[in-house]
Amino acid sequence: MSIEPLTLILFASLFLLLATGFPIAFASGAVAVVFAIALWGTGHLSIIGSAAFSSLTNVNLVAIPLFVFLGWIFRFSGIGDDLFETVYIWLGRIPGGLAIGCMIISVLLGAICGDLAAAIFLLATIVLPPMLKRGYDKYLAVGSVMVGGLLGLIVPPSIETIVYCNAIGESVGKMYLATFIPALLMATLYILYIGIRCRLNPKLGPPAYPEKKIDWKVKITSLRSVALPLLLIFFIMGGIYGGIMSPLEAASAGAVGSVLIAAIYRRLNWQIIKDSVYNTLSVAGFLIWILIGVGCFTSVYQGIGAPDLAVKLAHALPGGGWGTIAMMQVSLLGMGTVMDDWAIILIFGPIFASVIRSLGFSTLWYGAVFLINMQIAFLTPPYGFALFIMRAAAPKEYNISMLDIYRSALPFVGAAVIALLILMLFPALATFLPELVIGG
Question: Taking the complete model, does pTM exceed 0.70, yes or no?
Answer without folding.
Answer: yes
